[in-house]
Design brief:
Two copies of one chain form a homodimer. Chain A is 74% helix and 0% strand. By secondary structure, chain A is mostly helical. Chain A folds into two domains: 46 residues; 394 residues, Na+/H+ antiporter like fold (Up-down Bundle), CATH 1.20.1530.20. In chain A, α9 crosses α10 and α15 runs antiparallel to α16. At the A-B interface, α1, α2, α4, α11 and α13 of A face α1, α2, α4, α11 and α13 of B. Chains A, B: One of its GO terms (cellular component) is plasma membrane.
Chain lengths: 542, 542
């Protein structure tokens, strides 16, 4: 154990201090990050651009410059590492997604979101896998086995709905926003869990029993990971409520929250679970209980710290993908047969569109059947937007593709190189071309809603003032809900069946207020200290 | 370049995902961090304890348990890496020190602080080096050369005044607090720069010319590093003022501030300067200009984020030092001659006390000569407290000792092992014994001042309410000063000589208000947007 770490430390030493080249690399990379943020800010008002595309294009430009400087040897500063990605970059993004999600909307539409996110991803994966098996035989690509085909399905089932979320307005179209947002997060988690299940599974002998084992394994991962995240979140809430750190120090509260979130992720890794799912649910629980137990300063700090981490991580990814797009090593294999690579990429794009259409419209139809009120139904225009929102492919696809088809970012096999370049092509094409078309498309489909273009990427609810949004949320979310006229009380079995989410939500609120909040704190149940800043907001909310 | 990083990535892969043991280590370490914070909080009210001692003792306990579990093989989870320390752990602490320092007090006492911090450290280093050369010959330690002796001087000249700062009250004894705080930071930077200068210098041929070269090198490092930090800070202020990010997003502002601070550190590494000094001055400039150009949310977030990072880093260090104290490998060599090690440690403790007394009392006397008003003079009791505050040795000494006497945390030479165990003994003894005596001692020496024991470690000015301290600071610090009755206008040469700091401070304020603030923002010069939250605090401050 020590030996491994020593060697890492030695290498890090070499990289970080002795190896002056890598200091140069880090400097350039950090400077590019700053440049992306500043330029993304300047282009904010533009009709077409968004932060992701900006970072991607800056990455490509930097890649070209590095390629010219190094005489065509390399286009990036670091080799893509899917571990760096899954351990340091993705967790803050997913945690923040859970932390900032509007829980009321999320849990109201819980069943729809799970349908789209989990079942939809499975459908999409299946269709892409089948399509690839069908069509790739006609192309002269090489030897890919059944595991590779299924992995390709999981790789291209992972969506990236950031572009669309930047354009949608949470207040004008709450249903649409929460569906796209929720589906995006559940989709990320599902495709990663699915990908891991496929990789770790022996696919040479498929029979009914092994298929059931696969499904069982998948469900086990899903539920234990969720449970771990919930427990970690509740533990942090309980500790902070019992000890009431804020009396002494904001820093302690912030430190405990960040460390517990990280601990939940590492514990998931320890038990071979899905850390992504764990931090997502840890984030949800922390924002529902823990966040309300801390002082006002801690609330502002944690909210913005998590959002900033997620924001920087997203820019990091797109910048990186942009720089990596020109990597000579992978394109070398493609030079001989450019047609094959273009055909494969086009085929994948087609399959992505078909695979997504194959579940968005049927599942929307099913969901609409269960809803009574026409305002709650998903209109055909909204269905098109949901479909469109999931066409972009991003960093998760890249990371999974690298994991499947390279060893530490390198490959020497032609078929693997083609898969990597196809993935890069699909990611670049879908992010840039579809991304640029998103704003105009949504303006066209939803002309009635006002579109705030200066909505920000990772934290759409960044408070302009400090106390106001806290109060606002408190009033809107916590109390208006309980037994209000909008919640239909279940009078019959039919009502229970047709409005299951509302009913589940209603009983959950009752349970939450009766048992959970008194123990774990949360809005209105935070420890009350006379004269403390929480006094105002807590009492104000009631 | 790539190759080195690839191998690191491979190792990290191994460590982070494949190597399950290190996942266990990380889990235990993060859990211990959480435990230290919680227990430190519970012991807050205690008369004797503080956070550092708590973390140190928890570390020792964990070390004992690990030692028993592994059957006496190892007592720590990671091998101490001075690079990990200097690159990831120390910079946030130093940056935060610069960011949170009360600039008015700091610059008012600038000359005194520089006397204590820079000249004092040199005096201390010289005395310890000479003493060690004198006394170590009598002990049977082994072959240490002149470079080792000078390095020992620098190692034990690095103080750790955290314990004392936790007990002192910034409002009751502002002069004392700012002297101890300021000296501590300048001392850290000086001893690290000194240590590097000693290590990189050819000490076999010492003559007048090389001595001057040494001093020139030291001064060059000091001033260019400072300049780089100031430039990076001003650049961040200028960018944020010009673009006014807050209009769109708090996250962008926070991200730019953090990234620019990190960039300043990495740039210093790039130009082979002292990153420690650079981030310290970058922190000062950022808190003076940049911090006032951002939104209220960003202010709260950055203030607490930097404080939390520093807080966690400090706990991390003490926890680590505690765990490392029992490392068998180093004590193995000492077993044969326990007397030698004890004698060496006792001798070092004596030299530390003598070396510190040798500059605190003479320099205080000199400073007092230049002050007219008796309230500004440093009383003999305060001198004793200043002397006491710098007796503790901490993480910087450990890191420097590891750097000088081990290779990646390991050593096979007897004399080196003895130096490492002596350092551990000095750090443990001074932190625990002197640390425990600090609270009672200060109560004895300063009985008139009320001592708030629940002062927190890294952020003594954590706002209890959000807007109040901002307003308060604005009134107290920015305007009351200018031309107020407390600033004596220099009427004669004598006045210029006897009140140099006040005069420098006065001219700096004039320059700052006339030239710097209009360009770089700062309190009262932040871009004004009607209806924005800055309106209240900025206008309120005027």
């Amino acid at each position: 154990m020590d030996q491994a770490i020593i060697s890492v430390v030695r290498k890090l030493q070499m990289v970080n201090t002795s190896d002056h080249n890598s200091v140069v690399s880090i400097n350039i990379f950090v400077a590019l990050l700053c440049a992306s943020i500043v330029i993304g800010h300047l282009l904010e008002e533009s009709r077409w651009m968004n932060e992701s595309i900006t970072a991607l294009l800056i990455g490509v430009c930097a890649g070209v410059i590095i390629l010219l400087t190094t005489g065509g040897k390399s286009s990036h500063l670091f080799v893509f590492s899917e571990d760096l990605f899954f351990i340091y970059v993705l967790p803050p993004i997913i945690f923040n997604a859970g932390f900032q999600v509007k829980k009321k909307q999320f849990f109201r539409n819980f069943i729809t979101i799970m349908l789209f996110g989990a079942i939809g991803t499975l459908v999409s994966c299946t269709i892409i896998s089948l399509g690839v098996i069908q069509f790739f035989k006609k192309l002269d690509i090489g030897t890919l086995d059944i595991g590779d085909y299924l992995a390709i399905g999981a790789i291209f089932a992972a969506t990236d709905s950031v572009c669309t979320l930047q354009v949608l307005n949470q207040d004008d179209t709450p249903l649409l926003y929460s569906l796209v947002f929720g589906e995006g997060v559940v989709n990320d988690a599902t495709s990663v869990v699915l990908f891991n299940a496929i990789q770790s599974f022996d696919l040479t002998h498929i029979n009914t029993r092994s298929a059931f084992q696969f499904i069982g394994n998948f469900l086990y991962l899903f539920f234990t990971s969720t449970l771990l995240g919930v427990i970690a979140g509740l533990l942090s809430a309980y500790i902070i409520k019992k000890l009431y750190f804020g009396r002494h120090s904001t820093d302690r509260e912030v430190a405990i929250m960040v460390l517990m979130a990280y601990l939940s992720y590492m514990l998931a890794e320890l038990f071979y679970l899905s850390g992504i799912l764990t931090v997502f649910f840890c984030g949800i629980v922390m924002s529902h209980y823990t966040w309300h137990n801390v002082t006002e300063s801690s609330r502002v700090t944690t909210k913005h710290t998590f959002a900033t981490l997620s924001f920087v991580a997203e820019i990091f990814i797109f910048l990186y993908v942009g720089m990596d797009a020109l990597d000579i090593e992978k394109w070398r294999f493609v030079k001989g047969s450019p047609g094959t690579s273009v055909a494969a990429s086009a085929m994948l794009m087609g399959l992505i569109m078909a695979g997504r259409a194959a579940f968005v419209f049927p599942l929307s139809f099913l969901t609409n059947l269960a809803k009574k009120s026409p305002t709650e139904k998903i209109s055909i225009k909204q269905q098109v937007i949901i479909w469109w929102a999931g066409l972009m492919r991003g960093a998760v696809s890249m990371a999974l593709a690298y994991n499947q088809f390279t060893r530490s970012g390198h490959t020497q096999l032609r078929e693997n190189a083609i898969m990597i370049t196809s993935t890069i092509t699909v990611v670049l094409f879908s992010t840039v071309v579809f991304g640029l078309m998103t704003k105009p498309l949504i303006r066209l489909l939803l002309p009635h809603a006002k579109h705030t273009t200066n909505h920000i990427l990772s934290d759409p609810s960044t408070p302009k003032s400090l106390s106001q949004p806290l109060l606002e949320e408190g009033q809107q979310d916590s109390y208006a809900d309980l037994g209000g006229p909008t919640v239909p009380r279940p009078g019959s079995l039919r009502a229970l069946l047709t409005t299951p989410t509302h009913t589940v939500h209603y009983y959950w609120r009752k349970f939450d207020d009766a048992f959970m909040r008194p123990v774990f704190g949360g809005r209105g149940f935070a420890p009350f200290v006379p004269g403390s800043p929480t006094e105002r907001s807590v009492r104000g909310g009631q």
